[in-house]
Design brief:
Length: 502
């Protein structure tokens, strides 16, 4: 068989695996949006069956043989070509998955499906003890998963690598150790200044009108509704069932405008990243983006660098006032802008301001590492959370629902994901500096509600590459530097010096 035929055979097999992954994602989306709670047991078995099937197909002897046979052919191709990248990424996935047991895959699906429903109930009822045994089983799964990749430099490394391919715990710690003291210093400077008012954010806001505004805003930003839809959920997320079906969710709060306002922008950023993959990547492991940090860079850019910017609201604020005249009609634009950027320690990560947000992430990463190092037991997690929260942010959560139970990630087995949020902030700021250098009138375009030039830049420089390059490689390719906190700190300091006058 000729190499081209073997390559096509590999693509056919990978397409079948991706079809299974899309169906898995659809069942997961349904669980978090419309599935009745009593469906969890059946859903767990369905997901276990499909995950085992996808896993067995990927680690098959046929895939391994094709990868070996294709290596001489691929080595002669341009290393950045579609086919060379496809084989390289498939090889990486194959070598990782062959280390993971068939039984673990099924156990993970069953455990996390039950854990999600338990978490939702525990959070609603402020009952950590109800969720505790589920989290203990998930932590055991995380230890077992790490064990597949021993020896390692750190037990947390295999978990980080799931979400940030090629990065290790030491890489993330080095970045955070540089970032943390600078952010703490900035927060202290802000705290020394008179506080801005954002009381208008906590008035009564009609949820249907919040939904309407969010849809209008992301439509203007370039969101493609023929390839997406938005639904309500307890914890917002984005998922994809292929190039033509990338879905977002949002959370609405009738007495806090920011939840849906910025949550919708955030999830739209994720979706537009996936939508920007070249269609040729569909039904291949190159579709949708490389790392969670890169994904978070896109969502956090739309949410914060655009969505919390003054030019953005010069365009959109009149419409928001029109929808909510009694709440915002007498609030000047400048007051609104400062209010949505208020720096103040808060309990909920997804509602945290930009200056304190990364502290929420560092806290979670440190707790995860302590759990993985067996320095912390799950039963002691609420107390450890509250103690560290007080140390980092100066406040103590009033209950576990606003503390250790607030995030969905652990119920889904996503230990190792949280660092990606902070890395996304840093990547986004680096890209932002490059974009503004390439598009000098970008603020004026945003002020006019024009986003096509900005979105085109992202599509041509980031989105189109999909999963061809690791995050560090892509960022260096686009900005000339690997992930570095400097651009993010320049952005934060310039923004908050102007808002707080110091």
């Amino acid at each position: 068989m000729e190499p081209e035929q073997k390559l096509q055979q590999l693509k056919n097999l990978l397409a079948e695996i991706e079809d299974l992954n899309y169906v898995i994602a659809m069942l997961d989306w349904d669980q978090q949006t419309y599935m009745p709670p009593a469906g969890a047991e059946n859903r767990g078995h369905q997901l276990a069956t499909l995950r085992q099937l996808a896993h067995s197909k990927l680690v098959s002897e046929e895939i391994g043989r094709l990868l070996d046979d294709l290596q001489p052919y691929v080595s002669q191709l341009d290393a950045e070509s579609f086919d060379a990248c496809l084989v390289r990424v498939t090889r990486r996935n194959y070598e990782k998955e062959t280390k993971v047991s068939y039984e673990w895959v099924a156990d993970f699906a069953l455990t996390t499906t039950a854990a999600h429903e338990a978490w939702a109930k525990a959070r609603a009822e402020n009952d950590f003890l109800y969720f505790q045994p589920h989290l203990e089983r998930i932590l055991d799964l995380a230890h077992r998963y790490a064990g597949f990749f021993a020896p390692y430099d750190h037990v947390y490394d295999p978990l980080v690598d799931v979400f940030e391919p090629g990065m290790k715990t030491s890489d993330v710690k080095t970045i955070f150790n540089t970032l943390c003291p600078q952010q703490v210093n900035l927060i202290k400077q802000v705290a020394s200044r008179p506080q801005v008012d954002n009381s208008f954010m906590s008035l009564d806001y009609d949820e249907a009108k919040q939904w309407e505004f969010g849809v209008e805003a992301i439509t203007r930003m370039g969101f493609e509704w023929d390839r997406s839809r938005q639904d309500k959920t307890l914890h917002p997320f984005t998922t994809s069932f292929g190039w033509g079906d990338v879905r977002i969710t949002t959370r609405l709060s009738s007495n806090y405008l920011a939840s849906a306002l910025f949550g919708t922008l955030h999830e739209a950023g994720h979706a537009m990243y996936a939508m920007g993959s070249d269609k040729s990547m569909d039904r291949t492991p190159l579709f949708g983006g490389n790392s969670s940090g890169l994904h978070e860079s896109q969502s956090r850019m739309w949410e914060n660098l655009i969505g919390r910017s003054f030019p953005f609201w010069q365009h959109f604020y009149p419409r928001l006032q029109e929808l909510f005249p009694s709440q915002l009609g007498n609030v000047p634009l400048e007051v609104f802008y400062k209010g949505i950027n208020k720096v103040q320690p808060s309990f909920i990560r997804v509602e945290a301001d930009e200056a304190t947000y990364n502290l929420h992430i560092m806290l979670r990463m440190e707790l995860e590492i302590a759990l993985m190092e067996n320095q912390l037991k799950v039963k002691d997690l609420p107390e450890a959370w509250n103690t560290r929260f007080k140390e980092y942010l100066g406040i103590t959560p009033p209950d576990n629902s606003k503390g250790v139970l607030q995030d969905v990630h652990w119920s889904g087995g996503m230990i190792g994901y949280f660092p990606s949020y902070a890395l996304g902030n840093l990547i986004g700021a680096q890209l932002w500096e490059r974009i503004n250098a390439d598009i000098p009138d970008l603020p004026e375009q945003i002020r006019r509600g024009e986003f096509s030039t900005w979105l085109t830049w992202l599509r041509e420089n980031v989105h189109c590459h999909g999963n061809k390059f690791e995050a560090q490689q892509l960022i260096q390719r686009v900005t000339g530097s690997k992930i570095d906190p400097a651009a993010y700190m320049r952005y934060l300091e310039a923004k908050y010096r102007a808002i707080y006058n110091f």
